Each structure stands twice: as C-alpha cells, then as structure tokens.
Amino acid sequence: MIWQAYQGKFIDRKLREQASNRLFEKNGLGVDLDYGIYARHLPDSAKGIGWYINIADRTHAHAVYTKDFFDIAMFGNAMFAGETANLSDLWLTFITYKQFEAGILKPIETSDGKWHIGLGVSFLAGNRNLNFLVSKGELYTDPNGEYLEGVIQGSIETASLNSTQYIDNTGLGMSGALSVAFDADRFGIRLDATDLGFIRWSQNLTSTELDSTFRFEGIDVNLIGGDGFANINLDTVVDGLVRKREPEAYSTVTPGRIRLEAYYKLKKKDVHIYAGIQYRIANGYVPYGYVGTRAPLPKGFYIDGRFAYGGYGSWNLGLEIRKRFAKVFEVRLGTNNLEGYVLPMFGTSQSAYISLAGYF
Fold first, then answer.
1. How do residues 269-281 score in pLDDT, each as one tens digit?
2. What's the pTM?
3. For residue 213, what are the CA distances in angstroms to 11, 40, 149, 216?
4. Pick from 23, 76, 113, 177: most CB atoms within 10 A?
5. Of all residues in the chain, what percent carry a pLDDT higher than 90?
6. Is the pLDDT assigned to residue 122 strictly greater than 90?
7. What CA–CA distance (Å, rounded) separates 195 from 174?
8. Shortest CA distance to 222 belongs to which of 210, 235, 232?
9. With the C-alpha atoms ordered 350, 72, 240, 227, is the resulting torsion angle positive or negative?
10. Domain-by-domain residue ranges, the chain?
11. Greatest pairwise CA separation for the chain in angstroms
C-alpha cells in the first residue's frame, strides 16, 4: 500500500482493508531509501592500516501508530459511530540528509585467528525533517452523526519540509561507526555499530503546539442567496486546535544500527551458517533476529538466504544472488523482504537493493 502511495497511484478499498486486517492495537512503520559510493583499501599485512570513505544520500521515516488512527485516515470516522477512537502515542519522524564518512581499518593477527577493527566518523548535512508527536488523542463520533468530540495534545516540528532543493542544507551533525570482528578457521563473530549520531536543525524551522479539547458540530452553509461553499474558511475548522510557536533549533537522533552476528563454516565447499540480532534507533522498530546460510553455486555465482523476525514488520525472508567477474567486478542483487513479493497476502514488508563493486 505504501508503494502505491509513493507512486501516486489510487489505493483501492480492498487494499486498504487488507492492510487494516493485519494491524495490531499499536503498530510500527519504517521506510528507507539510500544510495551512495563506498571505497575501501586494505593493508597488505597485519602491520599496516587501511582506510575507507563513504558518501551517501539517506532518506528515512519511521512511525508508531494505533489501528484506530489508520482506520480513520483510510476510511473516515463513520465506523466509529458511538465509540471513541484511540489516536494517542502517535510518533512520526521523517529525515533526509547527506553523509560524508571516513574511517580507518586495522587487522591484528593472533595465533588463534585474525581481528578486524574499524573506526569511522561522518559529517552530516541535513536536508529535511519532520517530527510529529501526538501524546494524547481521542475522537468520539456521535451515533447519529450530529457532532465530533475529542482531545489532542502534541507537537509538530519541521525543518525545510517543503524544500525540493537537493543540496538545501538546514542542519549539521555528526555520527560515528565502530566495527570489531574475529575470524578463525571455521568460526567468526562480528559487532557493528553504524550511523550513531545526531543532526542539529537550525534553519527554515516551524514549530506548532497541539493542545485542545474540541467539539465540532459542522459548518453552516447558506445555499439560498449566499455564496454557498465558497465562503467556508477552513482555517476556522481547526482554529483553536493548533498554536504556532517561535521555532527554536532542535536535534534529531540519526536512525543508527547495532548488529551482532556469528557464523560457522561447514567443511564442504565454503558453506556458511550464520545467525545474528540487530537493533535500530527508531520508534516502532522491534529487535531483528535472523538465521541464514551462504553457499557457492555453479559458474561463479553465490547465494545467500535467510529467515528473520522483527524490524518494522513480523517475519521476513531475505535472498541475495551475487556474481564476481574476473575477480575485478562484482554484482549483487537482493531483498531483505522477499515475502512481500511472493506472499503479498501474508507479508508486511518489501525491499530491494543492488550493489556494483570493483576490485583493484
């Protein structure tokens, strides 16, 4: 459904109903769109120090919302006649930024195996941001449709939200990265912490406070001898619900990741079995646990398949196919959410990625 909305296509009622039937009382939502260029140089021996650079453009959104909020947004309030819809604890964050990262890589050999240590620092240029919070929200619909009654408390903060400039810079920040790995003959373990930081927004800001108890009984329209609907001022409909505040600079935490993974190498033909767990600094994200296997295929192809549970959805299927050409060029195609394509009636996520790599 989100993909349909992103493409600007009509979302029919059947699709909206399917999405609603999968929701719980409280739900999480996450969207990522990333692309960039990454280069790495490894030292020739354990005595040297390697380096890497990374330039990326990142767009991210995450949210926590109730099923009642989704149903009102998709179907209106008629289904809640005589009832109070729960709209509380709504969190929505949207952020776009450029990342310029540099780091060092250090291998350390021991009698038992080899350690790999990496440290990175990023400069972040913020582009757009939205923080929307409804700490308390209720909406009662009269059984006869005579009035709506409710309460809303929360806040909205934005930075250049309507900007369409690719290089528009309204915030500055920093983030750090750490990687520690150990590889033995048949066993390995790795800890990664990436994009842990913040952005301080200071330009093109708006700030709005939501704090009101309201009762809405409709709009009087004079259809005889008047201007009809033309004289309706929509600002009066929400008058008293919101109050503009003098905006002040604020900070947003970047949606970094912390991941721990271990693998075991089988004796035959470089087959690996691995398992791990990942946490992401984002509202609505559930710790993501996974198990999988990597194995070679004929003609130089390699396959990676995994099963996972958590993240922004429930269960997930991952699949990656890669091929290296003449040891100098590699192509990877994959998805972390295959279930959204092959089992759309049961899956809750979709994703896809492509990686092109050169070695010299």
1. 689 999 999 999 9
2. 0.84
3. 32, 57, 8, 10
4. 177
5. 58
6. yes
7. 9
8. 232
9. positive
10. 2-261, 285-360
11. 94
